Amino acid sequence: MNIEDLVNVNVTTLSKREERYMATAGAVFVITSDDIRRSGVRSIPDALRLAPGMQVTQTNANQFQIGIRGQTDFWTDLLLVMVDGRPIYNTTFSGVWWVAQNYPLEEIDRIEVVRGPGGAIWGSNAVNGVINIITKHAGKSQGLRVTAGAGTEEKGFGNIRYGASSGGLDYRLYAMRETRDGGLANVDSFGYPAGSDMPDFRRMKQQGFRLDWQASAATRVSLHGDAYQIHSGQFGYWMPNPTPLNFVEFSRSHNGYSGKNIVFRLENELMPGIDFKGQLFYDQYKVHTRIIREKKETVDADLQFDFSDVANQNISLGANLRGTRSRFDSTPQFQMPSRTTGLTSFFINDELSMFDGLFRIIGGVKVEKNSFTKWESQPSIRAIASDDDWAIWVAASKSARTPNEMENGLRWNRKASGCWTSPVTRVACLVRQTGDGNVRTEHVKTYEIGGRVRPTEKSLIEVSAFKIIYKGVPDTWQDRSLANPLIPQAIVPEYLRNVLNGKADGFEANFRLEASDSLTLKGSLTFLNQDYVDYPIADGETVWTVRSNLEQDPKVRFHVGSSWSPVRSLELDANLYFYGPFRDNNVTGHHRLDLRAAYKPSDELEISVVGQDMLKLKHVENESNSMQYATQQQQRWYVQATYSYD
Question: Which residues contact 394 (CB under 8 A, 6 or more apart)?
Fold first, then answer.
């Protein structure tokens, strides 16, 4: 996609209705289908590295930690992620099982990334950002396409798609499989010599369909669904008998993730200037690990009415109802109650246009209630002055991160950090983490300013700056007072509480330049500064909570890339990323270089060779977490062939 097409593409994630990219009043970035293809990435998380402001690190071969503007870890809970408007974040811990998020990359139309709050439109957990993975209309996926490849770590992968049309009905069918090898042992991998092969492999298969029907000139219908099965390995500790002086076992285990979803969407022009949009989906997933065993089912109904050109205003009204049923099978370490929860929300958004559209003010609010909260309001006000070649915008928002299921019923027996149980030392190695319903909603205020400009027809520059104020950040607090009845039993009690207030500020900048008809240059720079204080609890334990939150993200990240097509049949691409040090310098700053060369002997066939992490043979991207141990990511190569026939 060239710059002219990019600035005119219609995006929907910021306002939940179509608007031209150049005229959006927020920090929006679009990762196009061509960006994904030419980057050579093999997963959705790796594709997100292309966006400014994104923090993407890989803990091991099948686990990612992804966030925007801070507080990034495995349990990242300030980020809303969707596929075609269907939320995929998990209400158990308000995060995403990234190991289970897959789709044929060739069938993704674009990924819209909104840096900043989206609570006034999308509701709770859209605090620091929104990611919407938008798949292609079935009409854009006609004919047969087969993709297959293998490499040093990607042991084998492939997907097949077939699409066709009949009258006003377009459809697409696909199936995909993938086998990925594990990483290498780090120095802290108990029982595995440094550099030896680790068991964090992944085997995935997925299949799905999409139907798009133009029922009439005013009515569009879409139906799509997916089903997946994933088998992965991990190395970690296991406490089969979680008592204070029992030995901790370090072992390999196998995890299973499976799920299915189906989404029905209807769009209808009721009359000139009034449009209706409705979406109904069912989602089911199962997680079976040695620690956590859960089955979750969700039914969601979303309704929206758009009123256009009402006294120079565009008004949207909407409502959402969601029901979730969770069933847990307890393990010796992890216990949660099975239950049914619900969510109800309403929103209104009003855009006032003045001076023939040169200046616009957008205001909105969403009110929401779930099974653990009272009604929460999330207002937002934005203003933008824009023309075809420039835009300046400001925004102020209040958003909310609401309590999740783990904070209302969890009992998790965990190994104390750095502790090795021994009958001789008799040190308390058991931490009992409890979610007893005392976590309240975290409220966040965000102030933003930004702009974009086209100095020439072949260039685009975007900048944004922000300030965030967090009140009531949930985290863990250990009560080590002798008055606690668990202390004499050699058990350290750990509670989920609102224990922090915080601030963050920073900026993001990115550019795109078509240096010639055959060469495109692009890049981004991100700076993030964070500060937290322990409040309302302030003791020797919360000091460590403050420190861990400060070190979850690097201060500086950048990306530069080039795409060169010296002749029509040849493509050469390079992407260089830098991540500054974080985790109290336990994760050092590192560069990542990805290279791709592709040859098209005909219009139907493309053969590509991709090298990833080319600057080092192996490196660590993040630390171990409470779910799995970290492994070293290796330099890797793969070869891929794609055949298409209309």
Answer: 382, 383, 384, 448, 449
